């Protein structure tokens, strides 16, 4: 993006919500040169630089742009599913100003050159910030660790094998130890492949009725429990990529109480949907790990409210017709979500389950802190990544309107309340709802 | 040839995808209609004309001899043009072919498609892509509604009723669509349903399906009116669910000794094909208490009833 079309912007009459400093006030926000310059009540149009674009927010929420800590983008290797261009359009429409893309591409992002490719390619074709996580093990094979030092120097934010768990405990232990020397964050998907087996949905009464093989919550909790032991042994920095159930929350709670350097994410799908949404074999609700029982969903929401779960991410995973128009057992798991993460999250806010500031914190401030990213705050001097949200606008989601290349949204035809009306990346408006 | 059925029962729905969707009244309606076809099938002249001009396609993605021939015979006896299509699962990209095949077949204007598929939910998925009636002839481990109906008909003819009977369903319930459809149907009709099997072969949360759960044949068969054995689905086992067929037979195979735990004169059923010496001994399978051959006979009658009852609701009928 060129600097020439980037004039100062003043957002007036806003409700400023900045979770990084517990700010929730009516006021104005001034940004210039890609930086937040001033946040307070009554900046007014008077004392602003010439050429400032003044936008009356009419009481709408102004918050730090969202950082989506887990999104699968098809580049390189699966451009038919998603590109940085299409993903960033979707992100902008969803208020996401930073995409943290996953390394499980083809080839996998396991060498510094690939990190460089992602950064350059995203810079040239995207309209929001894109930063990759790099593979934890070479080729995501779970055997040999990658070059944490060189990869981090190239710009990798963290290390993960995407939707795969590293089953070899020795490999995982060494990775945690080695990562410590580079203060690298290990992000781990916790799902025992053998216990998961042929399972395609949550194990329980519903899977029994539908005649589908189930995945027990223990498949997740067992791997997480092992990881906690290894974190205790090594002192590494660890982030659970996607927790879905109460069993895991108990494990996480104990680890945090013991002072381990452990944090965790939950996907927006697991916070707003449950196994019943699978209904009559809806493949758009087939995700990995599977949607859980309502009691698990409620526990997960409570964990976000209490801060036990640090981050909410989209788990954006575009799948096209060929991989979703199949029987439930055969269909690929995954749902798109980068564009709907915030509005789906607003359901929890409107239901009184989570305060707005907590939701926004889990979607911006916390991921910024964990990954060492500049966003997630509106404090003067911060990067001007800003989202303007109309909390109350009612609308019905039409998949055809979504910007993603794939339309596999579980919120097909869902009634939504609240909408992103403007997204600003580095001081420049990249999305405006009209 | 032109004798109309006495029963005027019609299913007021387009598809038969599972027992789950059926009311007790609809089940009774189908069984009553099937009774007429039992009589018809025992005559020399078995032909009816109620499906004349109709096209029935039997689309089987999974091998089946008895169900497919039963549906074929049922359709032909009602006067339909019946076409059998067996799609070998190894020679295709399964799911893609499922929908593509559905769209292709739909363009040929069939009136009824009978579908069997190895994956749960596949028949329902197919039913959304076609304009004709769809009958589920078994989908994965989900439902096999005509099997449950023929089992119910067999029981009712022998016991005079379905309610207040104790039915023990024994064996590999986990992988069994027959068990699921039977559990739903028998519960709906007021029977007491038990499942008996090793814990590895019972679905998790099976107790939530409205059954009593037993892991021991002596307790499970006590006072049972009906003992319904399931085929041990060895080909579906991807893990080690049981250590050996010998041990399985020792604890869960139905022989005359274990049958003696049930009510005197208890009746034995099996959906077939049987693994003799694995889940059932030959002397029980062929013995006086066995209804297994009668089940096959009822199969044709029940499938005629389903075809007839659905066809009465077809367009231009």
Q: Low-confidence parts of chain A lasting 5 or more residues at pLDDT below 50?
A: none
The overall strand count of chain B is: 9
Strand content of chain B: 5-15%
Counting helices, strands and paired strands, the structural category of chain B is: alpha/beta
Report strand % of chain A: 15-25%
Please report the first level of CATH classification, the CATH class of the largest domain in chain A: Alpha Beta
List low-pLDDT spans of chain B.
none
What is the 3D form of chain B?
A: globular
- Helix fraction bin of chain A: 25-40%
CATH homologous superfamily assignment of the largest domain in chain A: Metal-dependent hydrolases
Rg calc of chain A: 21 Å
Q: What's the main sheet of chain B like?
A: 5 strands, parallel
What do the pLDDT scores of chain B average to? 93
As a whole number of angstroms, the C-alpha radius of gyration of chain B is 19 Å
């Amino acid at each position: 993006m060129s600097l020439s079309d980037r004039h100062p912007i003043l957002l007036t009459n806003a409700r400023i919500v900045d979770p990084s400093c517990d700010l929730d006030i009516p006021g104005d926000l001034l940004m210039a040169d890609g930086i937040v310059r001033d946040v307070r009540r009554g900046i007014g149009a008077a004392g602003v630089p010439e050429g400032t674009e003044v936008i009356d927010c009419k009481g709408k929420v102004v918050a730090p742009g969202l950082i989506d800590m887990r999104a699968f983008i098809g580049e390189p290797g699966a451009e038919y599913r998603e590109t940085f261009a299409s993903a960033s359009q979707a992100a902008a429409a969803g208020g996401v100003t930073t995409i943290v893309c996953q390394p499980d591409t083809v080839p996998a992002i396991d060498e510094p050159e690939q990190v460089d490719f992602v950064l350059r390619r995203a810079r040239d074709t995207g309209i929001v910030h894109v930063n990759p996580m790099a593979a934890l093990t070479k080729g995501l094979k779970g055997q040999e660790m990658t070059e944490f030092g060189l990869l981090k120097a190239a710009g990798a934010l963290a290390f993960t094998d995407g939707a795969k768990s590293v089953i070899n405990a020795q490999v995982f232990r060494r990775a945690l130890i080695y990562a410590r020397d580079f203060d690298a964050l290990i992000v781990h998907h916790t799902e025992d492949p053998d216990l998961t087996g042929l399972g395609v949905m949550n194990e329980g009464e519903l899977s029994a009725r539908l005649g589908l093989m189930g995945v027990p919550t223990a498949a997740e909790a067992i791997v997480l429990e092992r990881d906690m032991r290894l974190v205790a042994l090594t002192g590494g920095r660890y982030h659970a990529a996607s927790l879905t159930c109460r069993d895991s929350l108990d494990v996480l709670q104990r680890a945090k109480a013991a002072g381990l350097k452990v944090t965790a994410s939950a996907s927006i799908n697991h916070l707003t949907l449950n196994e019943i949404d699978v209904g009559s074999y809806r493949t758009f609700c087939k995700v990995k790990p599977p949607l859980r029982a309502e009691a698990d969903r409620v526990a997960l929401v409570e964990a976000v409210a209490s801060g036990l779960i640090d981050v909410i991410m989209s788990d954006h995973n575009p799948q096209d017709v060929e991989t979703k128009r199949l029987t439930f057992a055969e269909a690929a798991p995954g749902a798109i979500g980068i564009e709907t993460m915030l509005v789906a999250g607003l359901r929890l806010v409107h239901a009184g389950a989570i305060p707005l500031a907590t939701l926004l914190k889990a979607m911006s401030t916390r991921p910024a802190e964990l990954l060492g990213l500049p966003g997630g705050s509106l404090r003067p001097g911060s990067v001007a990544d800003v989202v303007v949200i109309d909390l109350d606008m009612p609308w019905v989601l039409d998949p055809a309107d979504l910007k993603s290349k794939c339309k596999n949204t579980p919120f097909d035809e869902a009634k939504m309340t609240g909408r992103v009306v403007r997204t600003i990346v580095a001081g420049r408006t990249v999305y405006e709802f009209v | 040839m032109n004798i109309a059925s006495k029963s005027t029962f019609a299913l007021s729905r387009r598809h038969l995808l599972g027992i789950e969707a059926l009311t007790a009244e609809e089940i009774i309606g189908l069984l009553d209609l099937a009774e007429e076809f039992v009589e018809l099938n025992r005559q020399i002249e078995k032909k009816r004309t109620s499906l004349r001009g109709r096209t029935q396609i039997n689309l089987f993605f999974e091998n089946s001899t008895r169900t497919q021939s039963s549906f074929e015979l049922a359709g032909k006896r009602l006067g339909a043009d019946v076409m059998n299509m067996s799609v070998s699962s190894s020679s295709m990209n399964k799911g893609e072919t499922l929908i593509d095949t559905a769209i292709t077949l739909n363009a040929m204007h069939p009136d009824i498609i009978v579908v069997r598929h190895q994956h749960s939910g596949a028949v329902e998925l197919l039913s959304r892509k076609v304009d004709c009636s769809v009958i589920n002839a078994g989908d994965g481990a989900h439902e096999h509604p005509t099997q449950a109906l023929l089992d119910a008909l067999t029981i009712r003819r022998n016991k005079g009723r379905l309610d207040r009977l104790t039915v023990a369903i024994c064996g590999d319930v986990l992988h069994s669509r027959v068990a699921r459809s039977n559990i739903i149907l028998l519960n709906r009709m007021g029977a007491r349903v038990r499942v008996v099997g090793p814990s590895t072969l019972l679905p998790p949360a099976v107790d939530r399906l409205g059954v009593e759960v037993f892991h021991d044949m002596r307790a499970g068969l006590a006072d049972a009116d009906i003992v319904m054995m399931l085929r041990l689905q060895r080909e579906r086992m991807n893990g080690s669910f049981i250590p050996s067929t010998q041990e399985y037979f020792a604890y869960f195979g139905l022989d005359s000794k274990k049958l003696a735990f049930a009510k005197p004169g208890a009746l034995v059923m099996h959906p077939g094909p049987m693994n003799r010496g694995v889940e059932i001994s030959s002397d029980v399978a062929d013995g006086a208490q066995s209804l297994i051959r009668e089940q096959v006979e009822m199969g044709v009658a029940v499938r005629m009833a389903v075809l007839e009852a659905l066809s009465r609701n077809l367009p231009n009928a």
